[in-house]
Amino acid sequence: MSKSIAVFGIGRFGKSLALRLADMGVDVMVVDNNPEDIEKIADKVTYAIEANLTNADAIQALGLDDIDVVVVAMGSDLQASIMSVMIAKEMGVPYVMAKASDERMGAILTKVGADKIIYPEEESGFRTARVLASESFLDYFDLAGNLCVLEMKPKKEWIGKNLIELNLRGAYNINVIAIKDERGTSASIDPKKPLTENDELFVVVEKKDLKNIK
User: Fold this and answer.
1) Backbone angles phi, psi at 79, to 5 degrees
2) Sign of CA dihedral 157, 159, 165, 171
3) Distance between CA atoms of residues 40 and 30, nearest Å
4) Per DSSP, what are the bridge partners of residue 203?
5) 132, 5 Cβ separation under 8 angstroms
6) Which of 24, 47, 114, 213 has a Cα at 20 to 30 A from 161?
7) Radius of gyration of the chain (CA)
8) How much is the average pLDDT of 174-188?
9) What angle (nearest 5°) sits at the alpha carbon of residue 65, between those of residues 39 and 23?
10) Ramachandran angles phi, psi of 187, nearest 5°
11) CB 73 within 8 A of CB 47
């Protein structure tokens, strides 16, 4: 089942994130107080809603009960960001990520319940979308051309099988370059060792094939 992700605020970062997630087949709700911005993105996402994100009642009316992740992307609006984080957590959203303009704002948003703080100079909508779109992806690193490196957990169906049995190159067109386990990270991989749920894989994959393993 695809994740459901709500993006609050569709400035440059929020718009980039929402569009990337939608391209990857994620159910995306975008919320903003600007009707023109909402109209421009409405046909590209699952839901596009105009709402005042400084108003608790307006946020509660969005119906976040079935939302897996809320991304609060109004890095310059502290009041709206605080209200959005607080109400989302009160409504039971499992994971709330908030954009902050500086460390002070990040500390405030953490105190009111944000699970993760992101900063514009450290994150991009593209990279964040890759991580959010999958239960398995832990991090994403863009390489030149059509390649990228993923840090990921083994998919559930991979656990208990070794790399020879899985034939990941043939099945998914990915190459495992390192594995992190209880002993640390190593590029000396034993292809006969079964994967565990605690392992972390570093793989090289063509961007066009990301959808096959999300």
Assistant:
1) -60, -50
2) positive
3) 11
4) 150, 176
5) yes
6) 24
7) 19
8) 86
9) 45
10) -90, -5
11) no
Q: pLDDT tens-digit profile of 114-169?
A: 998 888 655 566 667 666 766 667 777 766 567 788 888 898 899 999 999 999 98
Specify the higher pLDDT residue, 197 or 127: 197
Predicted TM-score (pTM) of this structure = 0.63
CA distance readout (Å), 43 to 48, 63, 207: 8, 20, 24
Rounded to an integer, what distance in angstroms lies between the CA atom of residue 204 and that of residue 94? 30
Tokens of 106: 């990040």
Encode 80-103: b = buried (16+ Cβ within 10 Å), e = exposed.
Answer: bbbbbbbbbbeeebebbbbbbeee
Residue 46 has which token pair?
């699952």
Mean pLDDT in residue range 159-184 = 90
Fill in the DSSP letter of residue 133. Answer: T
Map tokens 């459901």 to a residue.
4
Residue 38 structure tokens: 């909402």
- E strand map for the chain: 4-8, 27-32, 47-50, 69-72, 95-99, 116-118, 137-142, 147-152, 174-181, 184-186, 200-206
Residue 192 scores a pLDDT above 80: yes
Write out the two tokens for 169.
């190159």
Q: How confident is the model at residue 102 (pLDDT cuts 50, 70, 90)?
A: confident
Contact between residue 88 and residue 26 where contact means Cβ atoms under 8 Å apart: no
